[in-house]
Amino acid sequence: MSFVPRSLLAIGGLLLIHACYSAHEHASLSTSLSTASSLLPASITPSSQPISSSSLPLDISLETLASVLLICVGLVLGAEELRPISWRVWAGRVQRGKGQLGEGYEWLEDGKRKGFLDIRGQREEFANWVRGKDES
C-alpha cells in the first residue's frame, strides 16, 4: 500500500474517532442538561426553550460521513488490482491434466474429511462393540 491510501485511511480513522467522541460528548451533555432542567422549578426554566434531547448536530453527522468516505476511498485505492475470472483457462488446464480438479480440495474427493464426523463409521463401531459385549 502506498503513501496516499495509508494517509487517507489514517485521516479518515482520526476523523471517525473524533466524530464518535463528539457524538458521545453531545449525548452526555444533552442528558445532563435534561436532568438538570428537571430538577429546577418551573419558574426558573425558560418556557420558550424547553430542554430536551435533540438530534445529533449537522457538523458531527457530516464529519462522520466524510470520515467513512475517506476510509472507503483509502481502502479502494490501496487494494490489489483485481484479476479477471478465467473459468475457461482453469477448465482447460484440468481437461489437459495439468491442473488439479479441485486445486487444493482433492482431500474432499478421497473421503478423508478431517473436519467432519463419520456417523456411519461410529454407528458401525458401536454395533460391533455391543455385539462383542453380548457375546462375552
Molecular structure report:
Helix content is 65%, strand content 0%. By secondary structure, it is an all-alpha fold. The chain is flat, with a radius of gyration of 32 Å. 4% of the residues are buried.
Give a quick rundown of the structure.
The chain is mainly alpha-helical and 136 residues long. Helix content is 65%, strand content 0%. The model has no long low-confidence stretch (mean pLDDT 79).
Keywords:
single chain, flat, 136 residues, mainly alpha
SSE map:
Blueprint: H1 3-39, H2 58-78, H3 87-96, H4 106-109, H5 119-135
Helix pairs in contact: 1-2
Structural class: mainly alpha
Low-pLDDT runs? none
CA distance, first residue to last residue? 70 Å
Principal-axis shape: flat
User: What quaternary form is this?
Assistant: single chain
Report the major sheet.
Answer: none
Q: What is the alpha-carbon Rg in Å?
A: 32 Å
